[in-house]
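Q: I'm teaching a short session on how sequence maps to structure, and I want students to see two examples side by side rather than one. Could you give me a first protein with its sequence written out and its structure tokens following it? Keep the formatting plain so it prints cleanly on a handout.
A: Of course. Example one:
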Amino acid sequence: MKIVAVVGFSESGKTGLIVRLIAEFKRRGLRTYAVKRCAHGFSLDTEGKDTSDFSRAGAGGVAMISPDGWAALGPASAAGAPALAARLFPDADIVLIEGGKDIRGVPKIEVVRAGSSAALISRPEELIAVVSDKPRPEGIPVPIARPEEASRIADLILSAEEANMADIELIVDGQEVNLNPFVRTFIERTVLGMVTSLSGIDPDPKKISLVIDRTGAAAKPRQDR
């Protein structure tokens, strides 16, 4: 699974680019999903409807199912968009996130529109390419593509190096487990999201150690009541 954020200022053309990329990846036979980050929030619970009543009653989440599809609404996840995407779309080849310039460690495509600021908002080490309708932006250290060049942009996404993925070692009862890219991404995003939500933790930790020792719990004698 490759997770890529398409970022840029408002009205820069992010949605249109994602629509073209979805069509291009579908043409190539790749399972592609999209996640839209809503900075100002959203709600599917219309006042007076059953889903609103369920939420007010204290339901931890509400799902709606119809012959045409489904939708679910739940509390905000501390793990963030990448981990949520990995959980909701485990069979995905590509997940495109609209927005998310602040998501650490996720490769990014930045859309720059003519007339907007020339300054990039992405971290250089996370940037795959810049998509721009300007004649030729200067000082860009990555490939530049036109908005209509969906095939070329798709190639850049698919060829993006995975070397920046976190090095994760999983050992279960002394046996090291081989982790594929999807599992590595899922573990990293989930643990990183939970850890950085804690008070006093660096929002960009470089190394996290987690040991789950179940021997102590298993050895504790059961107390009769």
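Q: Perfect. Now a second example for contrast.
A: Example two:
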Amino acid sequence: MIRDNANPPKPETPADDFAVRYRLLFENSMDGILLTSPGGGILHANRSACEIMGRTEEEILREGRQGLIDSDDPNLRVLLEQRARTGKAHGELRCRRKDGTLFPIEMSSVVFLDPAGEERTCIIFRDITQRKQLEAERERLIAELQEALGKVRMLSGLLPICASCKKIRDEKGAWNELETYVRKHTQANFSHGICPDCMHRLYPEYCKK
């Protein structure tokens, strides 16, 4: 190998090294990353952002924030005001894929100045569709359980019961048949049969057979 001593390769500067590392991080992040302007323009989109949005980088840049974020989402105004006031924001938004379907994302955004002194924003986001589905299923199950518990009226405490006829005295002092009291205070009902002892006592002729 012949070296060109007259034009040796220039060593990488710290700035060059940082740019390479930034590019590697930007391209290989599992989260979507957008380099944007505060007004809503999008300057760069990484590979994950394209996969999540179902669009090419060129399409994302052309659409801008207005074409990607559901403008009817009330969180949009809240998060934009928060970022304008504090320089950063974190929350959930509804995004729009290329086919028009909406899906939820969790996002973080910060405002900064680039080397030229221009104000820029960075948005890091992820698709949380599965998490929202699990949360909705959990809420549905909790609601069903609460509804079921609300319908169950359980007996508790000491019940004054007659030692002879087995009637139960209610809170108003009236004596009720056991079946009547249980039906009134629970969701239980009765089906009737006869136990072996009563069978022998009441129908001995059938027991002998």
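Q: What should students look for in example two?
A: Point them to this: The radius of gyration is 36 Å. Also worth mentioning: The mean pLDDT is 85.
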